[in-house]
Amino acid sequence: MNTEMIQIASGEVTVHIDENLSRYSDLLYTTAITIYVLAMFMFLVSLATARSRKVVDAGVSVKKLVGVGASGGSATVDDRAPGRVEQAPVRTFGDRLGDMAYPVVIVGALAHIASIVLRGVATDRAPWGNMYEFISLTCVACVVAGIVVLRKPDYRPLLSFVLLPVVLFMFIGGKWLYTQAAPVVPALKSYWLAIHVSIISISSGVLLVSGVASLLYLAKMRWGGSDSASTRNVLRRIVDHIPSAQALDRVAYKAVVFGFPLFGLGVICGAIWAESAWGRYWGWDPKETVSFIAWVIYAAYLHARATAGWRSRAAAWINVAAFATLVFNLFAINLVVSGLHSYAGL
């Protein structure tokens, strides 16, 4: 196979960049976005057109004991009494579409993972050395976390709301933050790159799922069962067909329970790397500072969930605040503030 290679001198080491693999990586990145968009709309159509189980009037067979003869024996007879039974659910086109959307998301995640792997092979390094690659890794971590956390059939349509920010972030990354495959800058040439950034990306992906679940929880509390004209159509139909507020709250909590200590571990690994690279563990760099703030807010959320009177909406709003802080730290801090992390592709 004819492989196009580019040699780039990096210090005393010549790095070979495989341009063909890099192009395949970019193609798979675009393919993953397309598949995610398709799956997202399939799930949304499923939510908007799903049919709830209906309860209809019917006769219910009621067994009675009737005395027979003097012997005191008895016979069992059936008597029909008015009652309500649950009609067998009729599977609509939207229901079938929702069933098909879940494997579509998995295919998209596999294409996305392949894109990251090819990027790493093409550059012969960990494929998260700039903002474009970092966003890609965080987004695929979010999708995989959603696939695992929302694997129950009743929860799967919630993946549409997970895919919405993922598609947005991937579009921003591919459109404005894209960086050609190249060696990392000297400051990132450390084994800590593979450890620190991967842990932060994976934990952030899990925490993004939690934030989406809390937003849906608040929407369910606000509009679930509402009869107002403004929410009577598609919005109410979608909100009515997502899981209960309690189920959404549990999803958000469990995701934070997993992602919070992992995120803290990533911050600690970053501090250790900072000491070896810059001679100090902590220097209040903008990204360090906002990461710490996000970690504190998540700690406050966990504390609120364990405190009487704070377990419902108040805790959800704290989680949403942590979610917003995390998104700002992941994708916006490098755009608005200069710091020691600014070399990551910007």
UniProtKB/TrEMBL annotation:
UniProt keyword Transmembrane helix present: yes
Cellular compartment(s): Membrane
Regions that span the bilayer: 27-48, 101-122, 134-151, 158-178, 190-218, 251-274, 286-304, 316-337
Membrane topology reported for the UniProt record: Multi-pass membrane protein
Family annotation (InterPro entries): Cyt_c_assembly, Cyt_c_biogenesis_CcsA, Cyt_c_biogenesis_CcsA/CcmC
Cytochrome c assembly protein domain residues: 128-341
Any GO CC annotation of this UniProt entry: plasma membrane
One function term, GO molecular function aspect: heme binding
Keywords: Cytochrome c-type biogenesis, Membrane, Transmembrane, Transmembrane helix
Gene Ontology biological process terms in this record: cytochrome complex assembly
UniProt cross-references to Pfam families, sorted A to Z: Cytochrom_C_asm (PF01578)
Protein name stated in the entry: Cytochrome c biogenesis protein ResC
Organism: Gordonia effusa NBRC 100432
Source species taxonomy: Bacteria, Bacillati, Actinomycetota, Actinomycetes, Mycobacteriales
